[in-house]
Amino acid sequence: MKHQYIKHYDEHIYIQKISSGLTIVALPKPDVKTTYAAIALPFGSCHINFKKDNKTYRLPHGSAHFFEHKIYASQEGDMFSKFVKLGLDPNAMTSYDTTTYFFSATKHIFEGIDLLFETLDHPYFTDENIRSEQLIINEEINMDKDDIMTSLYQRLYENMFVSHSIKADILGTTQSISEINKEILYWIHQHIYQDQHKLLVLSGNVDMEALETYINKLEHSRKQNVHEITFDKPNEPFNVIKEKDELVKDMSTSRVLIGIKLPEFQDELLFNKMKHSLYIALHTMIGDASDIHQEWIDQDIIHQTVQFHITHVKGANHLVIQVQTDYPEVVLKEIQQIISQDVNKFINTQTFNRLKKTVTASQILSLDQQEFKMFQYLKAYFKNVDMFQIMTVINEVEFKDVVHFGNQLNHFPMSTLIARKK
Amino acid sequence: MIILNDHFKSYIFQISIGHLFQKEMDVFSILLDQYLKASHPSFSSRKEISIALEEMYGLKISLYSGLEGNYIVHHLKAKMIQPKLVFDVKLLDNVIEFISKMLFHAEINDEKRFNEEKSRLIHQYQSIKDDKQNYIDYLYEESLQKKFLDIHSIDEKINLLKKASLSDIQHYYEDVFMNANLICFATGAFQDSEIKKIKDAFEPYEKGFIKPYFNKYPDYHKEKIHLEMPINQAILHMGYMTNITYKDSKMSALQIFNELLGGHASSRLFHEIREKRGLCYSIYSYLNLNQGILSIATGVDMKRLDETKTAIHDVLENLKHHIISDEELIQAKDVLIHQIQTSLDRQSIYIQRAYRNHIYDEQYDLNQRLKQINSVTKEDIKSIANNLTCVLIHQVTGETK
Lengths: 422, 401
Hints:
The complex is a heterodimer. By secondary structure, chain A is of the alpha+beta class. Chain A is 42% helix and 22% strand. The termini of chain A are far apart. In chain B, the strands form 2 sheets. A 5-stranded mixed sheet of chain B has the order 1-5-2-4-3, sandwiched between helices. Chain B has a 5-stranded mixed sheet with strand order 6-10-7-9-8, sandwiched between helices.
């Protein structure tokens, strides 16, 4: 395997691609007892349009998540129980752009990986097991309907995005999942679940010698699939549908959500530089240690920290600022005023250096979490970079970057939502 | 003071301060935690405190209190980066000074700050109701705890918070908190000089022991609670008294029983209720070993609530009347052992374990623990099933129109 030592973080990466197209990555840490293993694919809820031989295919919303649930079915019963029988803890997760099947183990690691392949290689979809899964996912949808933030985000996304499939929930809707049938699931399996799209990552306690032997076995057993398809690129315009919206909801405090669309970058590292520069800029402008935060607390306007989060999905990069307050107009107006001002008014080198300290520490501490590391690695991998390159870029963010990107924020398309308490 | 050595990149401190439970003090305890977090004798505002935490490389501090048996226990937890990783020789001194002043030299005299924090706390309690799933879990646990101890409901707490004054908190801090029993823990890859600093700073404050007593379950009548709320699913909790608590010789058998009943995604409940009948998305069981309670929780289609209750009943009846297979027993043991071994990679677990060793007067021995788990038999599992008594059925459904 190709080895890379990241001296700055004292981390090792081993990587190899076999002839079937499968890529294998190991992030070993001998101090720990647990091994985490995952097979991930760059296929998530936002991928619904595909092209093959000049023909277009469209999947119902929620297909990636439905597939992730149903792939654990087998003719002999539930594959999950096979993992448990080996003493492994299996799980799976669908995000906007990735599906990940993983487990943690303290023994039987390679048997566990064999099981992951067996699960993904041998689908067993029937009309009956699909009907039963529709009931289960409907309950998951109902559970989400009872979550206030999920419904508010849904509304905000409807207003922010013109055509991007991020508008639809990862789970899909009762209607869309009712359209999913075994033909669709087999189509997904045949065209997307190919080795060339798969990444196998191991982190934590990895026996590298045993892994090399295992890779040799994979080299002989894994076959290349010939079904070529193209994932359709999203064609989302850089504007919002609705700039302002309001609703009333049964909740204890009103909320303000500000959604800001962020641009696409060819260079993934540049996007990360922007992302972390914006976090620092926002922190200085409206974070815990900002003047406005103290002012709002003094005036009993807010009771909780202002939250901001950047989501990175092709064609739908965005920032959401969220505040709980019973003075939504006041807070919204003030945030809009603040982000329209020169960031230099809020930050100096002393503040910048202080915030860099927290960023540096949180990066170092994150390396203690082997599962987190595995997820960070695969997320970055599907964006054609490695997580340590991103960490380096974050550490290299300079004062001028914070000012530069922070000052652009006001020029990006924005949609606001006031949710008033009933 | 208990100092542990590990290989992680951070240091964790825990200071636990406990006193006997008195109903009128539970609101003061949470209010004091809130005040102490927001007011520090060295800083004049929340903003300054936030800046100080950032200067200490994003020092994470949490301070909360809760009921543990017949005790109210405050826990301060602090997580910092290892100073040598950031080449900051003053970092540990700064963190120790920050924590010491915050806890032991508090100045409880700022009426304005007090009112701000009170308002924040009231708001936090009110907003528990917004997250319906969590709120219903909270109500279920509250209903169970009320059987053991006379505690305030969430609405009573909100009303008492509104009435609490700064002088209540002053008296509570001076008369109760500062005289309570106090124990300190730390874990990290410490150097000898650092251990000395930590001991010098915190050991002088240590006194007494925190040894809560957990009441026996007083009433074996089954209680049914049915609430209505504007929700899309029916949320069902079922509570069972097991008569097995922490340190009981049958504890490992109970933990294995819990694993195979609803502890993982291949358990009986998951398989029967979710996979086979498609009644729910989530169903699981969990234990409260301090009080010997096993709980089952699920969210289901309202129209199929009765069917779900019957199905859960059938799963339990099956375990009462049939011996499980060797394979299922081994599987449940493996899951439990896996959880225990995996937890050793989490730094916070070292402190949790040290704290539990203190309150239960024991020395954790991993090999002994694994031996106990491996000695559990199929008959032990059947016996657990036969000794379960359902004490609470708590169901919440959508409002009747």
